[in-house]
Amino acid sequence: MSHGKQFTLYTHVGGPNGWKVALLLEELGLSYESIYLDFQKNEQKQSPHIDYNPNGRIPTLIDHKNGDFVLWESNAILLYLVDKYDTEKRLTVTDEKEKHILNQWLFFQASGQGPYFGQYSWFARYHPEKVLSALERYQKETQRVLGVLDGVLAKSPSGWLVGGKFTIADLSFYTWDRAAISSILKDVEGVDVEKQFPAFRAWHKKTEARDSVKKLTELQAGLRTQTA
Ligand SMILES: N[C@@H](CCC(=O)N[C@@H](CS)C(=O)NCC(=O)O)C(=O)O
């Protein structure tokens, strides 16, 4: 076991998918050590990380109290953690239909939100050429996804996605939504997230106010200044 912590989390200072897992570990009060990989050095594609995760992308989690069990894909990790360690089922649901709805949101996040928001970041920061049509496509797709969430949340009496409470479904969207607000849609002419997607914005703010989120946002800001 590494330094007596139950989990090792391979992650990245800026990567939204890694912070999702850290947030749930915080929510569940589980102990973990984060190893921040350097993407500039391509550490995610090298040993030791690649030995655990053949996909070479973060996050990867190792559970030392469960025979050094290794898991990757952030939403698979969220499901594992609530299944095994959320004994009171605080952050998940138990009703059969609601379980499927929770999965629906996790799949939508992993296929419809993360990749599109992530592709925007790739074209904005790393792609060698400036491809305006690609940037516009991903900005439009980001707005479309926020519209889907806003429509559903506006009709939800609790203001949460499933089960009438905050669950891993809500948590799974948070970190990429933060990127949408602070970066992807920030300076887009004619776009006002607050006005266009009020139910989405209210939902995002409720998550933002959680202790786990406040703690890790502060930690991330500190790490960013160290690595800047
Ligand atoms: N579907 C995966 C996506 C993982 C992913 O794209 N991670 C990004 C960081 S947020 C990454 O490792 N990028 C580095 C690379 O592609 O080499 C998940 O949810 O875990």
From TrEMBL:
Gene3D superfamilies: 1.20.1050.130
GO-annotated cellular components: cytoplasm; nucleus
Keyword vocabulary terms for this entry: Transferase
Residue span(s) of domain GST N-terminal: 5-89
Name of the top EC class for this enzyme: transferase
Chemical reaction(s) catalysed: RX + glutathione = an S-substituted glutathione + a halide anion + H(+)
UniProt cross-references to PANTHER family, sorted A to Z: GLUTATHIONE S-TRANSFERASE-RELATED, TRANSCRIPTIONAL REGULATOR URE2
Family statement drawn from the similarity comment of this UniProt entry: Belongs to the GST superfamily.
Protein name according to UniProt: glutathione transferase
Lineage, broadest ranks: Eukaryota, Fungi, Dikarya, Basidiomycota, Agaricomycotina
